[in-house]
Amino acid sequence: MMKKIKILILSFSVILTANVMAQETTKANDLKKAEVQEMAFPEELNLSKDQKIKITDIVKDAEKVEKEIRSDKRLSVEKRQEKLLAIKDKKEREIKEILNEEQLATLKKLEAESKDAVKLKKVEKKTLSPKSKQLKVTKKASKVK
Q: Any idea which UniProt keywords this protein has (predicted)?
């Protein structure tokens, strides 16, 4: 009987510790996200400190709403995607309202470059040489075994 109580207490302690660690990890991840967002401002935009603060607030608010939408299991996949897209559009619109004309032009240029880079990666992926395709197939086959 004493062994069962000790095992029960030990199990409870492990579960409680894991729960606390998971909560702390989530809080740490949220802080890291905010820091990454703040650091993700392209230097080319030459944002003022005030602009950075406003944009960070917009991003944090949007992330909070996005998290709520993702956790709402009553929503269909389509409705969830629709709402998330609306939040993304609103966030982008609000950020662009903060930028001046020069910053907007720079942002459009950076976005175009980013899209070009994504397209290039897709093309490179499609045009792998037959040798590299064979290598991929071989690697996949060896993982299956």
A: Coiled coil, Signal
Q: What is the mean pLDDT of residues 44-73?
A: 92
> In Å, what is the CA distance from 116 to each residue of 40, 112, 122, 123, 130?
19, 6, 10, 10, 25
Q: Provide the token pair at 130.
A: 């037959």
pLDDT for 75 beyond 60? yes
Do 96 and 55 form a contact (C-beta atoms < 8 A)? no
Query: Which 3-state string (H, E, C) describes 75-103?
Result: CCHHHHHHHHHHHHHHHHHHHHHHCCHHH
Q: What is the mean pLDDT of the chain?
A: 76
8: which 2 tokens?
A: 């029960």
pTM score of the predicted model: 0.56
46: phi > 0 → left, psi -120 to 50 → alpha, else beta; which? left
Question: Alpha-carbon distance 57 to 97, whole Å?
Answer: 14
Rounded mean pLDDT of 92-113?
A: 90
Dist CA 98 CA 74 (whole Å): 35
Q: How far apart are CA 111 and CA 99, in angstroms?
A: 15
